[in-house]
Design brief:
248 residues; alpha/beta; six-stranded mixed sheet; four-stranded antiparallel sheet; 8 helices; 10 strands; globular
Length: 248
């Protein structure tokens, strides 16, 4: 569904991506792991077209991603942002239905509200939540609303940026289960970036490790403990000693 081939990206003298290549199969959940500052977010932004690679190609559904194909791609994706990114001035249902109220996916207002309420139900929130504002929600509820928004337009591709950041272990488990269930039900292709190894094991079909601007290892989540790669082994076990230098 998504292929990155020799993608490079620098910001001035700082080389972030140094030839990253990755294949994300259709209908699979790919989780990208790696230390802070290794380029995970830049990788995601390159796929979204928010950042233009200096070199290399990205294809989505067999089409090379460029200025002409980007708009079509954007209509088919959803995203859960790290901080939720809810609009404080809009009630919950308008946050969820944001893409259905404007642009090429616009629906009549009443229909958009009905769809939003249905998506809220899917993530375990009651219809009464629809008319609340973000400030009236707990952190876990805000994350659920963000998830409902990500799936509101029934996307083919969903991106999850650190989906459990700021949540307690129990709520993190709830969000992980919801992500896994929803991605499977929708048959969507998912890319998640996270540091949380509990999330990795809960939601991944495939795992890719990004280190020093390149994909160091890719394989099934079931193989990460026996892969034998020293970089992967150090990261998933949180060891201070190893080939990945700790920033002090």
């Amino acid at each position: 569904m998504i292929t990155l081939s020799d993608v490079h990206k620098s910001f001035g003298p700082k080389h972030v991506l140094r030839g990253a290549s990755l294949d994300v199969p259709k209908g699979q959940s790919m989780v990208v792991i790696g230390g802070s500052g290794t380029g995970k977010s830049v990788l995601l932004k390159c796929i979204l077209g928010l950042v233009t690679p200096d070199r290399g190609t990205i294809t989505v559904g067999g089409q090379v991603l460029n200025t002409k194909t980007r708009e079509t791609f954007l209509d088919s994706f959803g995203m859960l942002f790290q901080g939720g990114a809810l609009f404080d001035s809009l009630p919950v249902w308008q946050n969820v239905a944001f893409r259905l109220l404007r642009g090429s996916l616009a629906r009549p207002r009443d229909e958009a509200r009905e769809i939003a309420i249905e998506k809220l139900r899917r993530v375990g929130l009651t219809p009464e939540t629809a008319d609340l504002f973000a400030a009236e929600l707990s952190g876990g509820m805000q994350k659920r609303v963000s998830l409902a928004r990500a799936i509101c337009a029934d996307p083919q591709v969903i991106f999850f940026d650190e989906p459990t950041t700021g949540l307690d272990p129990i709520m993190s488990g709830v969000i992980n289960e919801l992500i896994r269930e929803i991605v499977t039900e929708m048959g969507a292709t998912a890319i998640t970036i996270t540091h949380d190894m509990t999330s990795v094991r809960a939601i991944a079909d495939q795992v890719a490790m990004l280190h020093d601007g390149k994909i160091r290892w890719v394989g099934p989540v079931a193989d990460i403990d026996t892969a034998g790669d020293p970089y992967l082994d150090q990261f998933i076990n949180g060891r201070a000693e190893g080939p990945i230098a700790a920033v002090r």
